[in-house]
């Protein structure tokens, strides 16, 4: 009898174990939203190869010795590991049967994982009559806009977290080794095992960018990084080590370069987590307002400032703040052969005609640089014997006129009265009334209300109520930035924000620069000048309602999908009507979505590609 009881209990135990195994199997086969065992579940294995499953090892600092590659970071998470808080649903969604219905769209892949529609339009580029002034590096958007989805590079991985990413990135995410060989003697970038490593070198600072930056300030003490100087433009930035290092000094730098034979330099910068954009000083204005930057920097940036009738240097003059500085580190400053002397003489003549004065000229190790200062009043312009270049007429310098606009051949008149003031030292300038609004009473009141509103919204909703993992957010874009209140409210987070001002709306970009933030003009009916997978989070506040009246909402969503990294977020605050149109498109792209308070849609991009 005891034997029968034992066999009966053994049989019961086997039944329980069998039921448990069947239950776990069903769970693994059916669960696609939240993986309890993320690296064992079949839902994960369907989306990733076994070779892509990250491993957890201690972090080690990158070294310059290629023989000892740095180790992978701690606890890498897979691209799709973003559980959404299902408690965010709003009441109006409960009765909407079509809310979670995906549009039946047959998506196609683009050819290249690095596709940038307005810069890769080969048909338009072939039709250009001239390429002498970099016309082929400017924007040429295809019509209609493409609706293909950019594929991922093979073996794409979750980008390394900031600040580790500043020094090293995954090779597989930007598999372009050309710069390693091309700039091997200048310490731009090295390949080390599965990583690209950035030692902090450059064409003009082979001994290290930190030493170079400190020497600039030592040469001219008024260049007080992170206090008087907050917003910098780096022309022809390479892999953006200059701007990346200045972040430690509370300086935010807009690094830019064209998409050219220096393969993927801006892509390197963005993957590192450094603010950057694709642009060129060719025949059209840069997409920035007048009098924006405190300092402009060029280290062998290969721009012929004296060429094209001096227009490139006049463009720098336009975007440089009155009283601001241009740091030019280049061979004509210190080389004495005939060719370099002729360039220097031409530069002297041009800068003198623009009333720029040399405030420092020195040699740094094996290179040299000169620092010019732009005047802060029109008095010098008026006292010139020869009025060449002439002063601009008002219609040539009106607000929001930096979009597909030819370069100036004149000098814009400088601000007068309170608006000519240099902003307060950082961080005071972030919250004080911007100098561009000092003469606009209504603008000043709107600015204060906007700042207060965003401070509360970010604190009460965005940081605590939207199920966003902010520890994984570093590259952020505000698609409709207004006064920059969204970025200002996030200033204490370890991230940066690209503030975009739509060209069809009110021009508030000067205010954003006055606050010590960076931004750019853009028309969202066209593709943005950035590489795919550049940003961790895109934010849109009441942009899409008006935008959908001018262009196809689906094309805008395709562009958002191109820009956001797998695992990244889209946060949209808009009308219920727009959210209802937007959600089915996102679902067709296999994004996870949810809504908070009936007006905040949060989307998370998956790694799915057609």
From TrEMBL:
GO terms for molecular function: methyltransferase activity. One of its GO terms (biological process) is methylation. It is found in: Endomembrane system; Membrane. The chain crosses the membrane at residues 12-30. Its main location: membrane. Residues 56-68 have a biased composition (Low complexity). Keywords: Glycoprotein, Membrane, Methyltransferase, Signal-anchor, Transferase, Transmembrane, Transmembrane helix. GO terms for cellular component: endosome; membrane; trans-Golgi network. It is an enzyme of class 2 (transferase). It is a single-pass type II membrane protein. Its EC number is 2.1.1.-. The keyword Iron does not apply. Residues 56-81 are annotated as: Disordered. This is Methyltransferase. The lineage of its organism: Eukaryota, Viridiplantae, Streptophyta, Embryophyta, Tracheophyta.
